[in-house]
Write a structure and sequence with these properties.
Chain lengths: 240, 313
């Protein structure tokens, strides 16, 4: 069954079509990789699915229910959580408090919220930093914090926007491991990523965007052998 | 020990009138406690929820006029203004919030500033209802002595203190701070930012309104210039919290104490008169530069600045 359906979505900013007529489905339990050159419209797609933007055209469905037009907090409550490419920690709060604030979405008392938060913090490997004020965290850990607090909302689908960018190789391996474990928990994932090796290794399906249009869709194998994609994107990325 | 500090302070304050303070001292104490209440309420909205209001005079004035109009138009005791203003100011906050909470940052601040001024001008011109610039004079004062006024504002302050403490430590408190730190992140983490900002505004407005209704009873006279004052209410409220410490628990108390004493002191210097605002302006600049987190928030730094470091061990 498709968990998320994006149907004919377009998003215009003034005259610019950041996304034009893009459709795809995500199956429950899958990891869908969303790739494309800079400015292709990937983050914009997240913002549409997450409710920051109402699409100019088209609709988005989650578990068969139309979610385009709802507010981000409503969509989050329905089970869609996201991270931000440009991280947005709650700066003057500790790591623990950041995650507790998210955990309160599903519970009302402090004890339960803290239990959920501590579990997610441990899961993402931030347990040594529980009491650190998040402003002082290095980038790699802030990216993990994004994931921890998204998970604390207990989502059915998680959207990761370049959670690996700027990480060193050791951190990269760790993060891939975290993604795999999230998948094992039955959470569906949509991930934007520039590291081709990562995306090829973890994705069940891949959607390629270019200049706001869907260029191709398929398994990692199909995408890797698609001449259009190789020309438009992979070749460029490989040589970079 | 620290846990019981609020109770200890409350107990000490409660016995103060018994030991027989002068009327003037009682007056100062009442003002300090009243301003702490206003400071606490501003701090909830501005300090914790990050919505910096330059127009708290609007709520103070609406509260004050609720009490005043009950007396002048309906011939009721202005004390009924205290419970009634909960409803009146809550409704007023909802309407105002609907307009100003759509705005963010400096735009929100400017809109609140305008709202205070709009209320003042409305009160000045709606003569039939408010008495206009003539104000409202309460002729039958309840007590001549200060003691009971003191206890009433002390009870209001104590209730406010414990309510805000509970609130800040609860889910609501987390949501307020999350909104302050990053509204977009908060929204995407499932927090209905519009709803929770409105809640913060209503609670803050109602508490300030209650202080306003108390003011009418205590002072016995209100006019639009006094209770909707930009400088003497809205700005002083912000200063109290800034001086004491934004988003700190004790900040509003320390700030209220310092500001009330300072205002009284400056007023006693001959030939200065309205120049007190200049002093407050300079004080604010000094605080922003040296103690951006206020006296409570930067207490360690303050101790270092005045060379008391050894005393702290
Ligand atoms: N709020 C906005 N207003 C105007 N233009 C926007 C807005 N958001 C995105 N854009 C434009 O839409 C296009 C797609 O941007 P988007 O951020 O979605 O790209 P992306 O695929 O995430 O790129 P990157 O890999 O660099 O993160 C860009 O040209 C961008 O400038
Ligand atoms: Mg992007």
């Amino acid at each position: 069954m498709s968990l998320l359906q994006v149907k004919g979505v377009s998003m215009f900013f003034g005259g610019l079509a950041a996304i034009s007529d893009v459709s795809f489905d995500i199956q429950k339990g899958d990891i869908l990789g969303l790739i494309g050159p800079n400015g292709a419209g990937k983050t914009t797609m997240f913002n549409v699915v997450n409710g920051f933007y109402a699409p100019s055209r088209g609709e988005v469905f989650f578990k068969g229910k139309k979610i385009s037009g709802l507010k981000p907090h409503q969509i989050c409550k329905l089970g869609v959580a996201r991270t931000f490419q440009v991280v947005k920690p709650l700066q003057r709060m500790s790591v623990l408090d950041n995650v507790i604030a998210s955990a309160y979405l599903r519970v009302n008392n402090r004890g339960e919220a803290e239990d959920i938060a501590r579990e997610k913090i441990k899961f993402t490997g931030l347990h040594d930093d529980v009491n650190v004020i998040s402003k002082g965290l290095p980038l790699g850990k802030r990216k993990k914090l994004e994931i921890a607090r998204a998970l604390a909302t207990q989502p059915e689908m998680l959207m990761l926007d370049e959670s690996f960018a700027g990480l060193n190789p050791a951190e990269l391996d760790e993060s891939i491991e975290i993604i795999r474990k999230i998948k094992e928990r039955g959470i569906t994932i949509m991930i934007i990523e520039h590291h081709m090796k990562v995306i090829m290794a973890i994705s069940d399906r891949i959607v390629v965007l270019s200049y706001g249009q869907k260029l191709a869709e398929g398994t990692p194998n199909e995408i890797g052998n698609n001449p259009l994609v190789v020309e438009a994107y992979l070749g460029e990325a490989e040589s970079a | 020990m620290k846990r019981y500090l609020p109770l200890i302070i409350l107990a000490i304050l409660a016995v103060l009138p018994v030991i027989g303070l002068s009327t003037y001292m009682m007056h100062i104490l009442i003002l300090v406690i009243m301003w702490s209440v206003i400071g606490m309420s501003w701090n909830l909205l501005g300090g914790y929820c990050g919505q910096v209001s330059f127009g708290h005079a609007a709520y103070f004035g609406v509260g004050a006029y609720t009490a005043g109009v009950l007396y002048s138009k309906f011939d009721l005791s202005p004390w009924w203004g205290l419970p009634l203003c909960v409803v009146v100011v809550a409704l007023f906050s909802l309407v105002l919030g609907f307009i100003v909470l759509r705005l963010r940052g400096p735009f929100f601040a400017l809109a609140t500033l305008a709202s205070g001024e709009v209320m003042r001008i409305t009160a000045e011109n709606w003569v039939d209802f408010t008495g206009g610039t003539m104000g409202i004079l309460i002729q039958r004062r309840t007590w001549v002595e200060k003691t009971w006024y003191f206890y009433i504002i002390l009870i209001i302050a104590a209730l406010t203190f414990f309510m805000i403490k509970k609130l800040v430590e609860s889910k609501l408190g987390y949501y307020f701070v999350a909104i302050r730190e990053d509204q977009d992140a908060a929204e995407s983490l499932g927090i209905n930012t519009t709803l929770y900002k409105t809640i913060a505004l209503c609670i803050s407005g109602v508490i300030t309104g209650i202080a306003g209704a108390f003011y009418t009873n205590y002072m016995g006279y209100i006019d639009p210039h006094v209770v909707f004052a930009l400088h003497d209410i809205s700005i002083i409220t912000i200063m109290i919290v800034m001086v004491g410490g934004v988003a700190t628990f004790w900040g509003p108390y320390v700030g209220a104490l310092i500001m009330v004493l300072l205002a009284e002191y400056i007023r006693s210097i001959p030939g200065l008169g309205a120049a007190h605002q200049t002093f407050f302006g300079i004080l604010l600049i000094v605080i922003i530069i040296f103690l951006p987190n206020g006296i409570v928030g930067d207490f360690q730094k303050l101790k270092r600045l005045v060379g008391l470091r050894r005393a702290s061990g």
